């Protein structure tokens, strides 16, 4: 079938590639004009394939389709328009031109959440089920007949990014290809959308994303995750606008002890803890926020809100400087409008977007022997100088956030001084048991007391289980491939007891 692809983004690129793989002829790609000197991924790929690419800044003027645009489109002879993701308004002269019409991808289960911020509102409303719809375009706003729908479960801590990456993107690409196949085979349904349950919500913008504190913790959590990462749920506190990210209701075992954060309108002040910022709903339930963006745009771990800026920098070795130049080259490729990447160059202020974050993470992995970065690392170190400091710390394995303070017990045995931890290890830190309870550990050879060891209580076990659950669900280790986990384990030096005896005795 002859297809015109109208849209943009990596999603549009994937749909385009899969349609060509299925044997369809893409006669033209219509995408957005270049931004800051960067072509959209869909147009970039089509151009490399020799497919005609058109980048009209607009399709109509004063409510009328532009004649030259319509003529250019009609000359291609498309039999179907496929709109995987399109931010432009396409006139009906184009929509209804092909003999098969036009199909559009929408990231919600229509008729629920019509509008441009459908994923955001799916989470904000706390929907238990999400999904996408492929529908026949008409002159309404997401009101066309249904062709195909697929649904998925929404997890309690899903964000726009996780829901999109886990289901809406990969399954959406497959869904678009399946829809085109049904049309080609003459089996595509046209089911009128029911009006029962239909909703329409406006575009989420920063000015409308302020948190309303007079609601339960779950509703506040849904508001924060529904605005994560764009536009970002915010509140006034500490004399500035704070934007919250990475919210969770998994607070089992967390104790709200730490420095308080007064928040105007909040039921209770927030509490900055080692795990992050604990917030409260008007039902006194807790939620935890792990990342905060300050008013100047800097992203920090929520646990560091009241810490002063760390002015100490690592001195880069010759090897580090070579790596820095390679990484600087990656920044230049991603930021073509930046003449020279200086230490003060800000990744996002130089025109980078969320797609560029993914690209930078992948390029760093290639350049730094498979080093794993989180997208959040880029948001927390936005200037090149800060980014290289973060990168070098990770490569050296001395990330300050991961260092533990250990209260050792020392004992001299056979002319050797042994240093042993004696506390509980919970959530990446050695801590005393509740009530500082301990028990004696005995040397079986002579019955003497070696030291006092923390005696875990039920509450300590609850904290340990909660910390393990959080690490399992949100920690970096589970996201690393088995090959990379093995590589990291081989870098761990053996303990003295496992080293071979060079004397052979």
From TrEMBL:
InterPro entries in the record: ACP-like_sf, Ald_DH/histidinol_DH, Ald_DH_N, Aldehyde_DH_dom, Formyl_trans_C, Formyl_trans_C_sf, Formyl_transf_N, Formyl_transf_N_sf
Pfam families documented for this protein: Aldedh, Formyl_trans_C, Formyl_trans_N, PP-binding
Cellular component aspect of the GO annotation: cytosol
EC number: 1.5.1.6
UniProt-listed Gene3D superfamilies: ACP-like, Aldehyde Dehydrogenase, Chain A, domain 1, Formyl transferase, C-terminal domain, Formyl transferase, N-terminal domain
Domain Carrier: 318-395
Keyword annotations: One-carbon metabolism
A GO MF term: methionyl-tRNA formyltransferase activity
Catalytic activity annotation: (6R)-10-formyltetrahydrofolate + NADP(+) + H2O = (6S)-5,6,7,8-tetrahydrofolate + CO2 + NADPH + H(+)
Any one GO BP annotation for this protein: one-carbon metabolic process
PANTHER family, alphabetized: METHIONYL-TRNA FORMYLTRANSFERASE, METHIONYL-TRNA FORMYLTRANSFERASE, MITOCHONDRIAL
Assigned protein family: In the C-terminal section; belongs to the aldehyde dehydrogenase family. ALDH1L subfamily.
Protein name per its UniProtKB record: formyltetrahydrofolate dehydrogenase
Organism annotation: Phocoena sinus
Gene behind the chain: ALDH1L1
């Amino acid at each position: 079938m002859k297809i015109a692809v109208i849209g943009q983004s990596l999603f549009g690129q994937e749909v385009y590639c899969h349609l060509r793989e299925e044997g369809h002829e893409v006669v033209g790609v219509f995408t957005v004009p270049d931004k800051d000197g960067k072509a959209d991924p869909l147009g970039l790929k089509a151009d490399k394939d020799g497919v005609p690419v058109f980048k009209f800044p607009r399709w109509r003027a004063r409510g009328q389709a532009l004649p030259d645009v319509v003529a250019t489109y009609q000359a291609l002879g498309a039999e179907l328009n496929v709109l995987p993701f399109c931010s432009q308004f396409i006139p009906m002269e184009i929509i209804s031109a092909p003999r098969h019409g036009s199909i559009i991808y929408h990231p919600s289960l229509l008729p629920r959440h019509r509008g441009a911020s459908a994923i955001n509102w799916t989470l904000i409303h706390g929907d238990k089920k999400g999904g996408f719809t492929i529908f026949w375009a008409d002159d309404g706003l997401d009101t066309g007949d249904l062709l195909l729908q697929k649904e998925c479960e929404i997890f309690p801590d899903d964000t726009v990014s996780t829901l999109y990456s886990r289901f809406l993107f990969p399954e959406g690409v497959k869904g678009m290809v399946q829809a085109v196949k049904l049309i080609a085979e003459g089996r595509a349904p046209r089911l009128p959308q029911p009006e029962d349950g239909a909703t329409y919500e406006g575009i989420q913008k920063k000015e409308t994303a302020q948190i309303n504190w007079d609601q339960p913790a779950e509703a506040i959590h849904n508001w924060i995750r529904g605005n994560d990462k764009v536009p970002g749920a915010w509140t006034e506190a500490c004399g500035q606008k704070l934007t919250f990210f990475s919210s969770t209701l998994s607070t089992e075992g967390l104790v709200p002890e730490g420095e308080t954060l007064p928040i105007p309108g909040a039921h209770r002040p927030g509490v900055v803890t080692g795990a992050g910022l604990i917030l409260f709903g008007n039902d006194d339930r807790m939620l935890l926020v792990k990342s905060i963006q300050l008013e100047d745009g800097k992203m920090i771990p929520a646990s560091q809100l009241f810490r002063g800026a760390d002015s100490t920098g690592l001195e880069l070795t010759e090897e580090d400087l070579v790596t820095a130049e390679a990484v600087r080259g990656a920044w230049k490729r991603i930021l073509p409008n930046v003449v020279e990447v200086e230490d003060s160059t800000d990744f996002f202020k130089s025109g980078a977007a969320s797609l560029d974050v993914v690209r930078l993470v992948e390029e760093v992995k290639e350049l730094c022997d498979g080093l794993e970065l989180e997208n959040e690392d880029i948001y927390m170190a936005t200037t090149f100088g800060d980014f290289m400091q973060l990168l070098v710390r990770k490569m050296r394995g001395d990330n300050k956030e991961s260092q533990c303070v250990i209260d050792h017990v020392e004992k001299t045995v056979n002319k050797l001084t042994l240093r042993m931890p004696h506390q509980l290890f919970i959530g990446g830190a050695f801590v005393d048991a509740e009530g500082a309870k301990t028990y004696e550990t005995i040397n079986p050879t002579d019955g003497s007391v070696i030291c006092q060891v923390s005696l875990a209580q039920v509450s300590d076990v609850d904290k340990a289980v909660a910390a393990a659950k959080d690490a399992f669900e949100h920690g970096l280790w589970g996201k690393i491939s088995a090959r990379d986990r093995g590589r990291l384990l081989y870098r761990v030096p053996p303990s003295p007891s496992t080293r071979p005896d060079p004397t052979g005795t």
